[in-house]
Amino acid sequence: MKKSKWMLGAAALLALSVAVAGCGGDDKKADSGKGGPAGEVMVYTSIYPDIIDTMCKPNVAKAFPKMKVNWFQGGTEKVITKITGEIKAKKIAADALMVADPSYYLKLDEQKLLLPYVSPEAKNVISDKDKEGAWTAVRISNMIIAYNSDKLKPEDAPKTWEDLTDPKWKGKIAMPNPMLSGTAYVAVGALADKYGWEYFDKLKANGIRVEEGNSAIQNKLLTGEYAAAMILEENILKLANTKNEPLKVSYPEDGVVMVPSPIAIFNTTKNPDGAKALVDWWLSKEGQEAVVKGWMHSVRGDVPAPKGAPETKKLVEGAIKVDWKKLADNNAEIKEEFRKRVME
Amino acid sequence: MGRINSKFLVIAFSVLMLIYFVIFPMGVLLYDSIIYNGSINFENYRNVYSQDVNWRALTNTINLSLLVMVASVIITFPLAWLVGRTDMPGKKTYRTLLVSSYMIPPYVGAIAWVQLLNPSVGYMNNIFKVLFGLEQAPFDIYTMGGLAWVLTLFYSPFAFITISRAMEKMDPTLEEAARVSGASPLRTLLDVTLPLMAPSIFAGGLLVFIAAGSCFGIPAIVGMPGNIEVMTTRIVTYIYMGDVDGVRDATALAASLMFLANFLLFFMTWVVGRKDYTTISGKSTRPNIVELGKWKWPAFCAVGAYSMISVIIPLGSIVLTSLIKSMSKPITLDNLGFDAWIPVISSSQYMESIWNSVVYAVIAATIGTLLSLFVAYLAVKTHVKGRSIPDLLTVIGGSTPSIVIALALVVTFSGNFGLNLYSTMWILVVSYLVKYMTMSVRTIAASLSQVHISLEEAALNSGANWLRCCKDIIMPLIAPSIIAGWFLIFMPSFYELTMSLLLYGSDTKTIGVLLYELQTYADTQNASVLSVIILAIVLIGNLILNKLSKGNVGI
Asked: What's the DSSP call for residue B224?
């Protein structure tokens, strides 16, 4: 009888774990008094983790000493999935959201989940913003063409999006999968609008490979498996500048696909003042410098572009027009059209 | 009366835990996929199953999973026998080596294989081209064959662990009888050992099938560039639509994976259930070792060659990648160094994440193994009506893609149904249980079905209560399988990525999350470094356990 104690003990351990687990929960206090915003703010973001650790956490802590900011970091699609679950459970834990795909914000706004807020800093934002302030662009990522400069001379590299259909690239080009990557989705929508779906038929005929995401492409450009590829500018700038890798950006003459990723506040927030203060910080010069440190472009006119990149203004002028409303409304159709044409 | 009470109390408690934590979240999602605005609506099922691409993905998944399952069993059964039951030299080293590929996170391993076998610049392809003067690369990883190859190498250890552990505890008297009657060792193996091992072979095969069918990382890395769609890539596509309809479509599609795995389990149980497999009785416990004679060294070489291809080459490629300075330059001494190690080791989160992962994985594995033991006992050793239902239900979690499970847990455990585990470590532990519990249930159930009821009866008749009998009779008899079951939950939980990424909170960052960050935002080299560290930790941990327990505990 005595020896069976440990078995019961094990059962008790199971029971205990349930009890302990039950204590988990979160309290958010929103008392903003003098000396800036206080309480807690939860941000869900797809911005790069090293930027959060080295720039955002220390600077935000300094700017708002009384406020505790929690950062949840993950890829755009993962963060969106988490939010989808939270919306379903009617328990949105995030106060502020900054993921890549702008069309997702239109969807959230349609569901009346966003808190309108026009930041005093918004007047400096030269990129997209919602008139009512439901969302404001906070960083700019560009979809561009990249190539390996050890294997390809600059004059031989593709100069335009249409160059990628040249038979000399047959089987040596790649792009990220729009079903799995929000920025790739924007690029597909924009290019299909500009050149028609036939453009993708030609890419398909030219043997384009569809990869899971930007990081897979970046590696295969390095190893020389691909000669040129559609990829985000920031991936290339980072590798070229910090690791001296022979990767170069070819800014398409027919325009980059510009993705102005927004920041927004959920109207379920218990700490609107804190969340607003955080939006102000992101749009301030200091916040924008963090963006540029992550090799993305600032949305302000007065913050210089990342090292090695052309001026933001110049890119904006030539950028391909994107119909955000269409991307938000026809998500399933656009993805399916792409899949049928390229991935079968 | 007391003994019956303790037995059924413990089992009932386990089943309740299982239902609340493992089955209920999946049920919520499935319910939502059928009920729309308060009425039954199969529109989403009609929608997803009317598209050709989803049928093609389903066919691909079935073909691939069956192929990988059959290949895994065919490869691992002889390996398990050679390692467990013969006098082949170096068998202890081989055992560790053969399960090593199971300790590499699959997505890291898949990248290694892509580097080795891609058609344009794959290392192995280049070597073959030079060796045989070929014009074209002999292998293309971006094909069904390539995908099946990588899946088999990564998931066959499930079968190996399950089969080899059961083999060690088998009663040798039947084999001895065959040998005495003049059968050759090979004949004995095929006619006696193989049929007797059927429950474990089926269990191991099923584990491989479930793992291959519900895995997303490998098909995304290996299959996608070759335009091969499988169920998981389709399901993730629907989830990433980012709205409620997308989730309903994804669940409708995921339901077919659950159905498939359950059907297979049902079928296998039916095949196995018609015979008696009790080979562990009280009379003899030490299996004899088969002498291979002149086959000793050929066997050694064959297993060595397999280990070389399946483990050492991809592992070596990961270690090498971790030491490369620049991926764009050829591998020369100048291009090697510890550059990629420094940011990983000096990262402040790195030790904390490893510690978190160890703790969560140990808790998940321990709770999971205990629950599995009772659930397996209920299914195999009692005559209660509906005894195998809890067992079947664990397969639902196992066969569901991780991202769907994570979503289900967000919906269920954020406080709307009692507990609020959100952003605590417990939601991570629960996610690991949902996904991996079926691994240990299968392994333990297979072994339990080989234990003769007479042993338990003897203990009970001598006055022991059921819990004591469990501890002193049943558990020691199937100890290798219990340990194997524990590891089968521990290992994948330790480096789990998808669910952890959605469910971690600010204080509960795990090694999988860190690995994902390194992979996505830093470099492949950094991710390789972390994989090498993971492997080292597990191997050293295994070694220590082995030494402390004098060879009784370990994989």
From this structure: G
Query: Which residue among B6, B419, B516 sits closest to A21, beta carbon to beta carbon?
Result: B419
> What 3-state class would DSSP assign to B354?
helix
Number of domains composing chain A: 2
Strand partners, A147: A228, A248
A157 against A30, higher pLDDT: A157
Pairwise CB contact (< 8 Å): A344 & B53: yes
Minimal Cβ distance to B227: which of A89, A220, A344: A344
pLDDT tens sequence across A225-246: 999 999 999 999 999 998 889 9
The closest CB to that of A219, out of B224, B327, B420, belongs to B327
Give the type of residue at A35.
Answer: G
Which of the residues B139, B224, B421 would you substitute to probe the A interface, choosing the one with the greatest number of A C-beta atoms within 10 Å? B224
pLDDT value of position A298: 96
Is the CB of B517 less than 8 angstroms away from the CB of A179? Answer: no
Residue B447 to residues A19, B279, B304, B452: CA-CA distances in angstroms?
A: 32, 10, 28, 11
Q: B148-187 b/e with 16+ CB inside 10 Å = b?
A: bbbbbbbbbbbbbbbbbbbbebbbbebbeebbeeebebee
Coil, strand or helix: which one is A318?
Answer: helix
Tokens representing residue B446 in the block:
């297979």
A246: nearest CA partner in chain B: B328
Q: What is the pLDDT of residues B303-322, one digit of tens each?
A: 999 999 888 998 898 898 88
Contact pairs from chain A to chain B, CB under 8 Å: 191
CB contact under 8 A, B506 and A72: yes
Please check whether residue B316 is in contact with residue B123, taking contact to mean a CB–CB distance below 8 angstroms: no
> Domains of chain B by range and CATH?
2-275+297-548 (1.10.3720.10)
Share of chain A residues as helix, strand and coil, in percent rounded to the nearest 5? 45, 20, 35
User: Domain limits at A198?
Assistant: 141-256+321-342
DSSP per residue, B373-393: HHHHHHHHH---TTTTHHHHH
Measured in angstroms, the CA of B186 and the nearest CA of chain A are apart by 43
* Residue A184 shares a structural domain with residue A327: yes
- A243 and A201 both lie in a single domain: yes
A148 part of a folded domain = yes
**Which chain A residues touch B470 with a CB distance below 8 Å?**
7
Residues of chain B with pLDDT under 50: 1-2
Question: Cα-flanking dihedrals φ and ψ of residue A152, to 5°?
Answer: -140, 130
Q: What is the pTM of this model?
A: 0.88
pLDDT for the residue numbered B4:
58
Å between A240 CA and nearest CA of chain B: 11
Residues A80 and A199 in one domain: no
Residue of B nearest to A329 (CA): B241
Q: What distance in Å separates the CA atoms of residue B99 and residue B3, rounded to the nearest whole number?
A: 39
In a 3-state reduction of DSSP, which class is residue A210?
strand
CA–CA min distance B467, chain A (Å): 5
For residue B273, the Cα-to-chain-centroid distance in whole angstroms is 24
User: Is there a contact between B523 and A3 if contact means CB atoms under 8 Å apart?
Assistant: no
CA distance linking residue A180 with residue B233, whole number of Å: 9
Predicted ipTM? 0.85
CA dist., res. B277 & res. B283, Å (int): 16
